[in-house]
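Fold Annotation — chain and its backbone
Encoding — discrete vocabulary of local shapes
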Amino acid sequence: MSLVAPDPTRTVPLPLREQADVRDRWLTERLLDVLPGLMDRAGIDLWVVIGREYHEDPVLATLLPATWLSARRRTILLLHRSDDGVTPAAVSRYPVGQFLPAWTATRATGRSTERAQWAEVRRFVEQADPRRIGVDVSERFALADGLSHTDHRLLTEALGPYAERLVPAEELAVGWLETRLAEEIAVLHGLNRLVHEVIAEAFSPDVVTVGTTTAFDVAWWIRQRFHDLGVEPWFQPTVVLQRAGVPLTEEQGTLLPAVPYDAVVRPGDLLQCDVGLTSLGLRTDTQRNAYVLRPGETAAPDGLRAALRTANRLQELTTAALVPGRTGNEVLTAARTAAAAEGIDGDVYSHPIGYHGHGAGPAIGQWDEQGGIPGAGDYPVHPDTAYALELAVRRPVPEWGGQCVRLGLEEGIALTDDGVAYLDGRQTEFLLIG
């Protein structure tokens, strides 16, 4: 038994047992210190989160102990806000970590057990007498819409007259998912550092043999490397090529690279990766760029370096616009307006990140929608959150005969009361392969 709490920033990844210790400690801290304020902000006295085995509410996984890899049978969690804080209780066939057991299953089986479980939910509600009972239903956010039709019906039937107090818990669910502890942000620095190291290794002569290796080969190498390091991607890594003589192609109103994924890497190519890993229940999402040196070159062409500087400037304009209280659409508008004033041709499509890669919180554009996102884009920015700062610029490259390059960047950032901080820095120079 470990007598000292493991330091999750010590190494990535931690052994599985220590990862579980860290995640359970975080959950306790979040229930004690984060959830009460979120429930007050949303005006919800009782939060009911329900999931069935293999059909879980996305929120449920973030409330379960680390040793629970899924719900078991029907798992019902009741989080009651009172003057003393939040009381977490479980109406479940099995004990649920630090949740108080609010029901003990009898010897009854089948429907009798199910009725007894719902009757205990009713009894708990009668005793708590909440004014507003939050449930996870939402039109705007899939991650806050986890209550199934069947469980909603059964809950409504069980509550009887108390069902009139049911309200959507969208704001609460999104707030719970998007809010990061200080230690979680510290860990995200370490996770992003690992990603940056893997990208630097992938975009090197140790992995890329010019004239033989394809972009597809590099993408699969990255995935295998993550696996070998004890972390897993949350999406298939991609690597795209751009090169002189192969102009961008239009797709859904925007210009995208046209070099096939199975194309062999050549001197003078620009490579861009998009990779993300998951560890300790948190996720990363990163895009960085490399240039393949031609014989005699020691750096990327000036035109490409100018494009990277322009992308860095768009990052600065976007982070300046990322102000708590603004909606995602307002951040998008402010960033694009500032970019246009400086003559930058670019798109901003950043998103929250945390428990999920495309996480809960304000949508800040999409690559194919730069006019704002109805619904998700109307949600406000809050501090103590993390984002994938994702964007791209288009700029002609004189050394490519004036051909336009689309240079994309994606970096992890954290927004706290101190402002925006990059998670293990950002790319300001090309990685070089040569």
The chain has a mean pLDDT of 94. The first strand starts at residue 46 and ends at 52. The longest helix spans residues 16-42.
